[in-house]
Amino acid sequence: xxxxxxxxxxxxxxxxxxxxxxxxxxxxxxxxxxxxxxxxxxxxxxxxxxxxxxxxxxxxxxxxxxxxxxxxxxxxxxxxxxxxxxxxxxxxxxxxxxxxxxxxxxxxxxxxxxxxxxxxxxxxxxxxxxxxxxxxxxxxxxxxxxxxxxxxxxxxxxxxxxxxxxxxxxxxxxxxxxxxxxxxxxxxxxxxxxxxxxxxxxxxxxxxxxxxxxxxxxxxxxxxxxxxxxxxxxxxxxxxxxxxxxxxxxxxxxxxxxxxxxxxxxxxx
Length: 269
Known about the structure:
Elements: E1 8-10, E2 22-26, E3 35-39, E4 42-49, E5 52-55, E6 60-63, E7 68-71, E8 76-81, E9 87-94, H1 96-106, E10 116-117, H2 121-133, H3 142-151, H4 163-179, H5 186-193, H6 197-208, H7 212-230, H8 235-241, H9 247-258, H10 262-268
Parallel strand pairs: 1-3
Antiparallel strand pairs: 2-9, 3-8, 4-7, 4-9, 5-6, 5-8, 7-10
Helix pairs in contact: 1-3, 2-3, 2-7, 4-5, 7-10
């Protein structure tokens, strides 16, 4: 695919270059042409809402809430929405010198080899680092964030999915995003998607890149990590509010996602 007639560079001029993290968003026009841009600097974006096709010159992916999109300096890309809700992203730009320093220490190339990470534990860790980076004194997290993005891989083989099945999975994802504090059983999600449980699990994995339960846990982890650094709510109450009835399970999932306890996360950020 060749991307022609690039409209402008990205990030747009409205982005605050003094901020470590910017929030960006696009209005949706599924019937219109794909919006085309080129990256001024290397950047990553965590998708907080919306579904869209994201493409570089040689790769294409369907970005869902919980995905991380990646772009290299000077690289053209396009965005085409697949619903009418637009999208929102938390965006971090990287200077080339920082990427080169991190890449040299990690023994990898100083560029992103893939255009996106699907919703996953790795993507959830990226979200946590971005949220920590946005807090006062969080700029040191640029280095582990760059390392996480440079060394993560997305090796899923693409599977052909009908537009109807994709929309059904989108309905289930929307249900999880809105009701993650509730039970969200497999049967409930399959009913929302209007699919059998077997077909739902297979389609969900093909579209989103992980199982429904994994996506639910990572959604809860993002919500918990956010509340830990933006509120003084007791940790046990946060665990209950985001859907965990077992505090030890909450601690285990949190440590696996972020590499520290909830208390350490709150104190660190």
